[in-house]
From TrEMBL:
Key word DNA-binding present: yes
Keywords: DNA-binding, Metal-binding, Nucleus, Transcription, Transcription regulation, Zinc
Tree of life domain: Eukaryota
GO molecular function terms attached to this record: DNA binding; zinc ion binding
Listed name of the protein: Xylanolytic transcriptional activator regulatory domain-containing protein
Residue ranges constituting the Xylanolytic transcriptional activator regulatory domain according to the UniProt record: 164-310
Species this protein is from: Rhizoctonia solani
Pfam families with a match to the protein in the record: Fungal_trans (PF04082)
Metal-binding keyword on record: yes
Length: 315
């Protein structure tokens, strides 16, 4: 069928001397330099209707190819996505940011909320002799965000800490927790565990930095993996990227490529490589979500190229 379409398109091309076509091409090339940006208009998109496009299914964005059955279904009617969060400007504060000389009730609201935060709600329960306290947890997050995650900007630290505070200060069975969890874009239990599996490598405590303890965080993250990928969001991609780096830090290159490849597949499934400006205009997603999608795509793109260079150097 596609071959016939191409043949009919070729048949409609007006015949003309090759010299005239070449002269016309040369003129066009002289007008536009190779560095000029190409503007994608609605006409350009409509001219290629068989390309993949973004759809909204079950409240989540996904990419549908031209042969997918989802491409024949109309988009869901979803309410406009609000860019407001319940506590704007508040993020999880590390325990060492609290001033011990000032009473808690006189300190900032985010510090007071952070003290009530169940920071280990979704983390594996380690033996008390290990010494994995909130101070250790916060220190590892701080070091990982400042000396690792900032490198390719795979995850925006402030957005993760904001959603972490919102998720872990509400009771998991409350109505508010259910309502807020649906709108969380940058925190999930799977991502938290995967992040800690990598962050523990920055610990100065040999026990916490040991492979045995790090494996417990990674194993717990993998138990949550299927649920995270069943209805994937950006946090699933973030978590898979951190799991990949966790295995890479242990020299397990095969598993590192495996989980990174799964993350790249989700990038394709969620359509991070497709322009989502129309969804922002229709208020299906916020401007911040679009920016995060673009940043995550290019972060993984760059990381993919670095992993390829590393593989070539090994071979």
């Amino acid at each position: 069928m596609r071959i016939r379409e191409l043949e009919s398109e070729i048949a409609q091309i007006p015949a003309g001397p090759i010299i005239e076509i070449r002269e016309q091409t040369d003129q066009e090339n002289s007008v536009m330099s190779p560095t000029d940006p190409i503007t994608i208009t609605e006409d350009t998109i409509e001219g290629y209707p068989r390309r993949s496009h973004l759809t909204m299914q079950d409240g989540n964005i996904s990419a549908s190819g031209p042969t997918s059955m989802w491409s024949t279904f109309p988009d869901e009617s979803v309410p406009p996505r609000e860019s407001k969060v319940p506590h704007p400007g508040l993020i999880y504060r590390y325990t060492f940011e609290r001033s011990p000389s000032i009473p808690l009730h006189l300190q900032s609201q985010d510090i007071q909320m952070s003290e009530r935060c169940e920071w280990d709600r979704y983390l594996p329960k380690l033996n008390s002799g290990v010494g994995f306290t909130r101070f250790e947890h916060d220190t590892l997050l701080y070091r990982c965000f400042n000396y690792h995650a900032l490198w390719l900007r795979t995850l925006e630290p402030d957005l993760f800490l904001r959603d972490m505070l919102l998720e872990l200060t509400t009771h998991p069975d409350s109505a508010d927790a259910t309502k807020y969890s649906r709108g969380l874009t940058y925190y999930s239990p799977f991502l938290h565990c995967a992040l800690m599996a990598l962050a523990t490598t920055f610990s100065t405590d040999p026990g916490i930095r040991s492979k045995h303890i790090r494996e417990q965080f990674a194993r717990y993250a993998k138990q949550l993996l299927e649920d995270a990928c069943e209805r994937p969001t950006l946090t699933a991609i973030h978590g898979l990227a951190f799991l990949s780096e966790y295995h890479g830090s242990l020299g397990e290159r095969g598993l590192a490529y495996l989980y990174f490849g799964m993350g790249c597949r989700l990038v394709r499934a969620l359509g991070l490589c497709i322009n989502g400006r129309k969804m922002v205009d229709s208020k299906m997603i916020t401007e911040q979500e679009l920016t995060s999608r673009v940043h995550l795509f290019w972060a993984l793109f760059s990381q993919d190229k670095l992993m390829v260079c590393k593989l070539i150097s090994i071979l």
